[in-house]
Specification:
Helix 2 packs antiparallel against helix 10, helix 6 packs across helix 7 and helix 9 packs antiparallel against helix 10. This protein has 12 helices and no strands. The protein is mainly alpha-helical and 290 residues long.
Length: 290
């Protein structure tokens, strides 16, 4: 067994979930990075391209900007750019979650030993299910977001657990969705609080990452204003802004690794509280060793 092995199949409090999430990432960073490059590099690149294109299309509304023109959003590219962005974002998140869960499954069921080849092979075998589940989960979040704030907060918790159920229990897409609501029954608020704390931490890190684009935008604004008259808003449509925005956005999206790993710990915590799977396995292993 790995000397730095972290047991997943046990009950944890909020503080333990947070500390073990960062400990697991720190101990296995090289392996995690290698696996993600082999499984999620293409979705990540496609997402960066989509972010860049979305920034370019969104900035095009400032071309020949006229407040008297009520049809300022007539640029046909902007709707397509947002659609492309949401599709690539869904594929990236699904691939990312799926790869992380398969890696953790390999880790948890092999006493801390990870075969990258096994992870990549299973990822390829499960790819269709992973992407399909991701699209459905993403649509549920989007629909709940349009309805109201409260529904999206409720659906956010089970939708972050669907990949754990799909991979760790080897369930179908439909069963993963239904069981995600069952597993949080009577445990919703503590699970929501855990995600809330993680979300606050990631928001702070994300804000720090976004500081360069903020200063670049302020510099462009002051430069345009110093030239006198009404600032030319189309000046923001430059490749430096688009590239910088895409790169920094990519770094922010990579923070999902924290949510993905913590979701695995949350799943095993909930599963242990409901089914005592890890405890029963430990008792069984003790019986066999005697």
């Amino acid at each position: 067994m790995n000397n730095n092995y972290i047991e997943f199949k046990k009950k944890r409090e909020l503080g333990e979930i947070l500390s073990d999430t960062f400990a697991f990432l720190r101990i296995n960073f090289k392996t995690i990075f290698s696996v993600l490059v082999k499984t999620c590099a293409v979705p990540f690149i496609l997402l960066l391209v989509a972010v860049g294109y979305q920034s370019y299309a969104a900035s095009s509304i400032f071309d020949n900007f006229d407040f008297s023109n009520s049809n300022i959003f007539k640029s046909g590219n902007i709707l397509f750019s947002y659609l492309l962005f949401f599709i690539t974002l869904s594929i990236f998140y699904s691939s990312f979650y799926g790869a992380i869960m398969i890696l953790i499954k390999e880790y948890a069921y092999n006493n801390g030993n990870i075969s990258e080849q096994n992870v990549v092979t299973e990822f390829k075998n499960q790819f269709t299910k992973i992407i399909g589940l991701g699209f459905i989960g993403f649509l549920i979040i989007l629909i709940s977001l349009f309805l109201c704030v409260l529904p999206v907060l409720y659906f956010f918790v089970p939708m972050n657990l669907i990949f754990s159920i799909l991979i760790f229990r080897n369930k179908s897409v439909g069963d993963s969705l239904s069981e995600s609501f069952d597993i949080i029954k009577n445990e919703f608020w503590i699970t929501f609080a855990t995600y809330l704390i993680i979300g606050i931490l990631l928001y702070i890190v994300s804000f720090i990452i976004s500081i360069p684009i903020f200063f670049y935008t302020m510099l462009k604004t002051f430069t345009a204003a110093s030239e006198g008259g009404i600032p030319d808003l189309s000046a923001f449509k430059d490749w430096w802004f688009i590239v910088l925005n895409a790169v920094l956005s990519g770094l922010q999206y990579l923070l999902v690794i924290i949510i993905a790993i913590s979701s695995a710990f949350i799943y095993f915590n909930l599963n242990e509280r409901k089914h005592h799977t890890g405890t029963l396995e430990q008792i069984d292993s003790l019986g066999k060793s005697e």
